[in-house]
Amino acid sequence: MKNLILSELNRIINRKKNKILLIISIIVFFISAFFIKLFQVGFYDQITTMPLNSLNFPPFLLREYHLFIILVLCPTIFIESFNHENTSGCYRNIMLRPFSKFEFFISKIISCSLISALFIFSIFVLSTIYGYIFLPKVEYTNFFNINNTFSSLESFFYNFKFYLLEYLIILSFLGISCLTSLTNKNSTLAFLGSIGVCIGLLYLSDKLSFLLFSTPSIFDMLSNTNNYVFIYSSLIIIITISISIIIFIKKDYLY
Prior knowledge:
Elements: H1 2-14, H2 16-39, E1 41-43, E2 49-51, H3 57-88, H4 91-95, H5 101-134, H6 152-183, H7 187-204, H8 214-222, H9 228-250
Antiparallel strand pairs: 1-2
Helix pairs in contact: 1-5, 2-3, 3-5, 3-6, 3-7, 5-6, 6-7, 6-8, 6-9
């Protein structure tokens, strides 16, 4: 299993497409950070706003960056990972190795999860540093729906929990991408299908809007207004991954 994970990580990191995507991601990050710094206003929604400072900057950067993560970065990496062997016809050679289908599938899930964790942690670190350098320096700050003020350490942990919940949402999208990849051999259709599922779930229930617009729901959860982000994300992960495992094991990729 360890060798499978390392092999998949190596493939993800060394793909030319992913290297280009990483460069684009960095550019988008700094463009987003620049414009947020320029206006120094953070949005909960179109009406409710808050002045930005060195302590509360990271969540609001993620608000602007989330759509790029969900609509571009994640589907490209995830679907390429799950669809590569299928579209290239390499499954026959892979299945001849002394690994079960289950191990092969789980190695991809773990690899994509690790890459996502590394990326979201990097964004957290970069946004924290950017805020401390370029935003107005303060000793205390506020966040939406919470009356208490936060010290530097408290705001750091608040921001960290915010990014952890974003990571949970990314994992739920990983499950969706995995399922659409296994049901669509064409990468483009799988890509569009993943985004289509997110949009469809939005119309199914407003509580699932966090897949596309995560920050209001995360703010609400951290203020104990609701906890459906955690509940629904966990359910999506469990359901989609479980169904994907069944499909992958049952499906014959040799022909």
